[in-house]
Amino acid sequence: EIVMTQSPATLSVSPGERATLSCRASQSVSSNLAWYQQKPGQAPRLLIYGASTRATGIPARFSGSGSGTEFTLTISSLQSEDFAVYYCQQYNNWPQLTFGGGTKVEIK
Amino acid sequence: EVQLVESGGGLIQPGGSLRLSCAASGFTVSSNYMSWVRQAPGKGLEWVSVIYSGGSTYYADSVKGRFTISRDNSKNTLYLQMNSLRAEDTAVYYCAGPSSWFLYWGQGTLVTVSS
Q: B2 CB near a chain A CB, below 8 Å?
């Protein structure tokens, strides 16, 4: 099983600031990585797939980068609606998909 | 517009069985890879099972031999039959698709396994 490790567990950021979230895979997943946003009481929402391709309707302030074992989700200027939990997910080892433990982005 | 609507969750005793359903609209279940993903209270996401468009099925080790994924093409509905339920199966269960990454999600249905 490929283990996905996200850091930090909690990120405190002020509105308007930049947020950088990390995701590390225990072995290479190439660019087969997705990012999701989840707000309390809601289903996750796809942000990024293919490590760097934004899903339809996702604002340009969200960007993904990386390949192999190291990945980053950057939110360039945090808006109030961006405070949520973010998960990475590898799909290289299909069909055994795995998610990271999540990073909570909270208001500083 | 794509909609996935889960149902069938509830309170069940350990060792019991439950069948979850996921009714799709605006989207053809049989033409896509459909998964079940669960989330224990206050925890992260865990992939549970997938059914390919060709009908092949796969399971996480934690549920293998106890859960069965299936679909009814005439009803455009995905199912998860859960047997021998354990306390650690307590979670919100989401159906999701259409591929190995998940653009579409249902709203989730809560399964609570407790005596």
A: no
